[in-house]
Structures are given as C-alpha cells and as structure tokens.
Amino acid sequence: MKDVPELIDGYRRFLAGRYSEEAAVYRSLAETGQSPKTMIVACCDSRVDPAAIFNAGPGQLFIVRNVANLVPPFEPHGDYHGTSAALEFGVTGLEVETILVMGHARCGGVRAYLEGFHEREGKRGFIQRWMSLLNTARTTALRESSGDSPEAQQRALEHASVRQSLENLETFPFIKERLSDGRLKLRGAYFDIADGRLLTLDTESGEFLAVD
C-alpha cells in the first residue's frame, strides 16, 4: 500500500477523527451486526457518494453501486448478478424498508450511451451489455426531449434511467411481495453534482422535485 499514500493518509485521518468520535458505534455494529432501514442503488461515479450526500453514519445505509445506477430485470438464470444478489440480501436478509434508486447529473455512463458507445462495432464488452438496459428508457427520453439541447437530453435520460430501474425492481418476486403487503417502499432521487441539489421522484406526478 506504500504506492497509494493518499489512501493511507486518509485512513489515518479517519482513525484519528471519525472513528475516534464514533468508536462505540463501530464496536456495537461489530457485535450486533448491521440493520440498515434503507438500501440505495447508486452510480459508482467517484463524485457521488450516497453516505456523504445523506450525511449517514456507519450502519445506516446499505449501498450497491454500479455503472449508471441501473437495476436489471429479474433473471433467475444466466450470468452472475452482483446487483441482483445485493438486492436479494438487502431485502430478504437485512429486511430493508426502503430501496432508493439515486441517479445523478453528468453521468459518464449515460453520456457514453447517448453518444452511441453501445453501438460500436466489434466484440461487445461488459459496459456495452450493461448499458443496453437503457434501451427502452432511451427511446422514451429522446422522444420527450426531442429538439432540446444535448445537456437536456442527457438529463432526460438520467431521469428516465431512475424510472426504468424502479420498474425493473418490481419484477423481483421478493420485492413485489413486500410492496404488496407494505413492508417495502421504492423511491427515486437525482443529485446534481454542480450545485448540490437533490431532487426526489414524486410518486404521483412522476416528476423530479427539488428538496427544500
């Protein structure tokens, strides 16, 4: 680890600062285990850290991060499913009460998708296949933002990707069951890196509204 001194320096600051201040909380979590009430599906973009955005303490959030904060539909057979496995553990193991899908502005994955990265010739890679989850959302977003600026079209797709992921969550039987009996809620949000604004998806109107 000597070749990444910034990580070691950060750890030392953490140990002397936050860990020292919350040592009792960490010890308790080590003994009792975790029991977060909220699970967040977020992008792996280094600029968007859900724990920092929500000022969350240790043990409060169960977070899975991937490219463009996408949720695949339920597929019981096939390849490895990291996000699906995290959902299964969060819902059936930890019994979280809310799943929040959080998109964000200036998403590199969404921008690459809009620029046709997924349509490039040659062998399809992991990112191309993953981003194809946006095919349906892309059609809707571009139709609704036709004639707008490229920035507005990207924002429309970033919003649509959150809605698409929420729809895909409902294809999981263990999620659908808990939605039906009220044990689980699904929510959407969108974070703007430039100005720090958080928008939440209104369940009735389907629009993203700024948090006061």
Gross morphology is globular
Major sheet: arrangement of strands:
2-1-3-4-5-6
What structural class do you assign from the helix and strand content?
Answer: alpha/beta
Q: What is the name of the CATH topology of the largest domain?
A: Beta-carbonic Anhydrase, Chain A
CATH superfamily of the largest domain: Carbonic anhydrase
| Helix run count | 9
Which H/E pattern describes the elements?
HHEHEHEHHHHHEEE
Q: Residue share in helices?
A: 40-55%
What is the CATH architecture annotation of the largest domain? 3-Layer(aba) Sandwich
Residue windows where pLDDT falls under 50 for at least 5 positions: none
Biggest sheet layout: 6 strands, mixed
Number of strands: 6
What does this structure look like?
It is built from 9 helices and 6 strands, in the order ααβαβαβαααααβββ. With 212 residues, the chain is an alpha/beta fold. A 6-stranded mixed beta sheet has the order 2-1-3-4-5-6, covered by helices on one side.
Notable characteristics:
212 residues, globular, alpha/beta, 6-stranded mixed beta sheet, 2 domains, 6 strands, Beta-carbonic Anhydrase, Chain A, 9 helices, single chain
Compile the SSE list and pairings.
Elements: H1 5-21, H2 23-32, E1 38-43, H3 50-53, E2 61-66, H4 82-93, E3 98-104, H5 108-114, H6 126-131, H7 135-144, H8 150-169, H9 173-180, E4 185-191, E5 198-201, E6 208-210
Parallel strand pairs: 1-2, 1-3, 3-4
Antiparallel strand pairs: 4-5, 5-6
Helix pairs in contact: 7-8
